[in-house]
Every structure is written in C-alpha cells, then in structure tokens.
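Lecture notes, unit on protein representations.

Consider one protein chain, 84 amino acids long.
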Amino acid sequence: MVVSLKPELQKLVEERVKAGLFPSAEALVNSAVEQVVTEDDLEPGEMEKLLAVGEEQARQGKFVDGDEVFAKLKARSDVRRNRQ
C-alpha cells in the first residue's frame, strides 16, 4: 500500500522519526492507525472517563514509573516470544 501525506504531516513524521520517537515512518503510521482503531472500539465518552480517572489518580499521587512499566511489558513480550 502506498499512502500520500500532506506536506505538513510528512514533515511531522520525519521530525518524530529523526527525534528517535519511532524507528521508522512506517512504525509511526502503524501506531497512529492502531490508536484510531482502539479509540473507535471505545464507547462514546469512555476515553473521557478513562482520562478523568487518570487525572484523579495523578492528583492523588498515584503515579506509575514509565521505565518500570516498559520493563514489565518487555519481560511479558519476551516470555510470549519464547513460548512460540
């Protein structure tokens, strides 16, 4: 599949890849499409409710360390890969 982006979107993609936020333009586009699909699967107003819960938890000081989360996700991914 070949997709054409508006020049301003192409520049945004290039900047994010150059900044190291994504390994490639393809990875960024895949991530964006997956996010749209995920959001489409939510009930109307569900995203706002989830954000409100997160904001309230943040106000209460209930934070999760990002590095810890990514380490746990990587470990789970490694386990799954080793099972196959």
